[in-house]
Amino acid sequence: MSVENGMNAATFQRIIDEALPFASDMEMEVVHLSPGNITLRMPCRDNALRPGGTISGPAMMGLADTAMYGLVLSRLPDAAGAVTTSLTINFLQKPAAVDLLAEGQVLKLGRRLAVMEVSLYSVGRPDPVAHVTGTYALPPS
């Protein structure tokens, strides 16, 4: 079932589970999805930790990129061929070895590009551990 021309949380969760191996392996869970907004949760797992007991940068970037893909599909459910063209991450503080939340929104959706931002949070902590901006190239309609 679509939501205002977009995709719902259950449908995007199926895409994660069946078509996005990295996100599935990291057990990412769609907490919320509405047109232009998303919240994903990634459990803290040993394979995402780096020395020092913190979540690795590649795991954080993967969570943010998955959130951005969900944001595109939340507005354009037929844009499965959309791809990342840029991703910039600012690590703001050391994330705790706990689950991470990604909260994202679409900033601009054009004919060829979607621009988004995602903030990453350690569960139970109020301040973001990273801020991410990214652009996706949209497939021709």
Number of helices: 3
Number of strands: 8
* Number of individual domains: 1
* C-alpha-based Rg, rounded: 14 Å
Termini Cα gap: 21 Å
The topology string of helices and strands comes to: HHEEEEHEEEE
Task: Name the CATH superfamily classification.
Answer: Hotdog Thioesterase
Mean pLDDT: 93
Overall shape: it is: globular
CATH T-level topology: Thiol Ester Dehydrase, Chain A
> CATH class, anyone?
Alpha Beta
- Helix-residue proportion: 10-25%
CATH architecture assignment: Roll
Low-confidence stretches: none
Secondary-structure-derived class: alpha+beta
User: What is the strand content?
Assistant: 35-45%
The order of strands across the largest sheet is 1-2-6-7-8-5
Please give the largest β-sheet. Answer: 6 strands, antiparallel
Describe the 3D structure.
- This protein is an alpha+beta fold.
- It has one domain (9-137): Roll (Thiol Ester Dehydrase, Chain A), CATH 3.10.129.10.
- Helices cover 25% and strands 38% of the residues.
- The protein has three helices and eight strands, in the order ααββββαββββ.
- It has a six-stranded antiparallel sheet with strand order 1-2-6-7-8-5. Strands 3-4 form a two-stranded antiparallel ribbon.
- A hairpin with a 7-residue loop joins strand 7 and strand 8.
- The longest helix is centred in the middle third of the chain and has 19 residues, at 57-75.
- 34% of the residues are buried.
